[in-house]
Every structure is written in structure tokens, then in C-alpha cells.
Amino acid sequence: MKRFVILGGGESGVGTALLGKAKGYEVFVSDKGEMKKKYKDVLIHHEIEWEDNQHSEHKILNADIVMKSPGIPDKVSLVKQIREADIPIVSEIEFASKYTDATLVAITGSNGKTTTASLTHHILKQELSIGLAGNIGDSFAKQIMEEDYENYVLEVSSFQLDDIKYFKPKIAILTNITPDHLDRYDYKFENYIASKFRIVENQTEDDFFIYDADDPVIESWLNSNPIKSKKLSFSLTKVVENGAYIKDKDIIITVDNNQITMPIKKLALDGKHNVKNAMAASTAAHLLKIRKQTIRESLENFQGVEHRLENVLRINKVQYINDSKATNVNATYFALESMQAPTVWIVGGEDKGNDYKELFQFVNEKVKAIICLGVDNAKLMETFGNMVDVIIETQFMSEAVKIAYKIASAGDNVLLSPACASFDLFENYEDRGRQFKEAVRKL
């Protein structure tokens, strides 16, 4: 019996453990931190051996195969030891995809992948048997074991793509590439780019690659790296023969000379970036032969994703917006770009070497006050101090929201769009977003 060791006892780790056991492996789950009770209970119920608050090397280095949580970097000494012992390391999507013949739509990118994945799933589920997994929802491995859908939409991070060998989606979508997580890629942007493009490395000429033709990083990589899959692009500025483009305030989507037209004003979600997300999702739906009417209706009634430009409440004619999922500058760029009213901007957190230059035009045009919410706000204060009349620091969400309430006047927006990771003051971006919504509801 082959020994399968799983590092990380979260959603993907426990899901993989269940599938591994069902496929006849001897499974051991090891988590360096404290595992959540709900996951321990599942492992106990299925009689799978586990440990937390430690990694026992003698129980790990005798593995035949290791699945590591995407959150564990390669530079950790235990991972180095596993590699030195020539034990193969796989990601959950790699391991799980071996056990399904389902059609896979895999979506990656620096920003927009959660919205695009949720929107694609929302359209496809009207007509197909389909699961939503990867970085989102229930674990892919667990769904293969329990639901066995005929199709899956997978939101895939660069960290998950780093540990694939054979993973091959029928349709791959790349929303955009901007510098992010560079601490995991030796601070080399080209390493991060290569990681994103692994999504197409096993595709053949029978598969499809949907991407943003307005993204210079993607265009330049494709010019020097030929790929086998059929390319379909989307663009806000160019005419696209196969894929999606804009003509007279309509989105035109073409696949094999078959066209769909969709008025932009009917899209449920605002902002240029959401036009792109809609283009990517509907191109995939068109490829999978979803009816035009279904695609149109789905784009009109899609409600959006929690913590991503989520309208929380309107109080005294001020709209409070939760964009806690904006953990990098480019995500905040999209948020500020889509603001149609003077904005009180709550920003800050754990800075990943951010360059805020691309935000200057929007800060000058749209931002009336900045509230810095982080342990160390010096860089924000220095960068934006001269651009706005009011800039204030705090380390408490409740206080940040109260200050915003005092500053904002009728017709304004209050936007939480941090441009930073959340780990300095919060458990994760969801925790940060929930605290924001709670504070707003208490006003």
C-alpha cells in the first residue's frame, strides 16, 4: 500500500485525504498549526491518521507521494528534505484530476479569477452538471469523490500550478498578470509569469486558451512562447476574430463564426474589469454550447462575490463598499477606477512591496480622504500625504468605519480596498471584510 502524506489540514488537504483513502492509499495528514475542529472530526470519522501543531519528520519522509497545501512555500526546510529524498510532491488539483474524466475549465490570473470562476459556474450550472472548486468552495478532491460532476470550474492560483505535472484543463482562462506574491518567486516577475502560464503547458490542439489581449505581459509572453491550444482572446480596445470584443456598447462574442451580442449596460456588475470577466466567462460558456439566451440572462442576474466590490449598506445617502479581497495594488486600481462618486478610501495592511504609482490618477480625481488601516502605515502616509486633504491612521476596523462615517457626506462612497494582505491585523481577507460589514451595520 502506497503511503500518501498530506501537509496542511485545511479544505484542500482534508479533501485530498478522503480521496486518497478511497483510492487505496495509506494516508497521513500533518499540519504545523492548529487544525480546525470540523476538519479533525472528518479525519477521525474516516479513520485517517493525522497530527497538528507539528510535522513529525519520521512520519513524513517515508512517504511515496506528498501533497502540500499551496500556502507552504518551497523554501521551507521540510519541503527541501522531501525533494532531496526524491519523493514526488503534487498539488490537490494534480492529484484529484487523475480520478475524473470531467471537462475542466481552469481559471487563473492575478485579479478577477474568483469573480470569473463564480460567474462561469453561474452560467454553466443553468444547463450542465457542474462543480466549483480549486481556491473556492468545497475541495476539488472531495467533490470528485462525493458528487462526481461531469464538469468543473476551478479557480487555480499560481501556487497550485507550481506543483502540477500532467494537469490539463479543456478550457484555460488567464484573466491578467500583474506583480503579486513575488516573495514566493525570488522577487522575479518572470518566475511568477511562467508559473501562471503552466495552466496551458499540457494542453493540446483540442483544448482552448482564453486570455486578455489588452494585457502587455500576456501578449509578450505568447509572442515568444508558442502554445498548442486554440487561442481565444478578449479585449476592450481591439477587434477580436475569435473571442470577445466591444462594438458600440455591445459585447460581441465569436466562436467558430457563431456570434452572441450582449449590451454592456445590462451586465449586473459594474466596472471595466467586470466587462472583461463577463467576456471570459461567456466565451467559455459559448465553447461549451450553452444557449445564447441562458448566457445573457445569467450575466444580467449574477450577484457578484462576497468581499469583491460588495455593496454593504447605504446610510445617510453614503454607499459603503467592501472590497477586502483587493490584496494587491492592481485589484484596488480596478476598484478606484469604478468609483463614480467622491470616495473615502480605507487602505493598508501587510505591504508586499507595493508600488502605488498607478493609483495616483484616481486618488487625485476621486479620493477625498484616506484612512490607513495597518500596523505600519508610514509608507502610505508618505506616498499619499500630499494628495488628499485628510489622511488618518488607525489599527481598528471599528474606528476606521466611524472616522469614515464622520468624513463622508451625502452622495459619497466609503470604500474598503486595502491593496495589501490582511495578516497584520486580521486572520485573512474574509475576516477583514466581515469586520468591515459588522462595523458598518453598527453605525
TrEMBL record:
Pathway involvement of the protein, from the record: Cell wall biogenesis; peptidoglycan biosynthesis
Top-level taxon of the source organism: Bacteria
Domain Mur ligase C-terminal stretches: 307-420
Domain Mur ligase central: from-to ranges: 107-285
Tagged with keyword Signal: no
Places the protein is found: Cytoplasm
Binding residues annotated for ATP, in chain numbering: G109, S110, N111, G112, K113, T114, T115
EC number of the protein: 6.3.2.9
GO CC terms of this entry: cytoplasm
Reaction catalysed by this enzyme: UDP-N-acetyl-alpha-D-muramoyl-L-alanine + D-glutamate + ATP = UDP-N-acetyl-alpha-D-muramoyl-L-alanyl-D-glutamate + ADP + phosphate + H(+)
Keywords: ATP-binding, Cell cycle, Cell division, Cell shape, Cell wall biogenesis/degradation, Cytoplasm, Ligase, Nucleotide-binding, Peptidoglycan synthesis
A GO molecular function held by the record: ATP binding
GO biological process: cell division; cell wall organization; peptidoglycan biosynthetic process; regulation of cell shape
Family of this protein: Belongs to the MurCDEF family.
HAMAP family, sorted: MurD
Functional note: Cell wall formation. Catalyzes the addition of glutamate to the nucleotide precursor UDP-N-acetylmuramoyl-L-alanine (UMA).
UniProt name for this protein: UDP-N-acetylmuramoylalanine--D-glutamate ligase
Lineage: Bacteria, Pseudomonadati, Bacteroidota, Flavobacteriia, Flavobacteriales
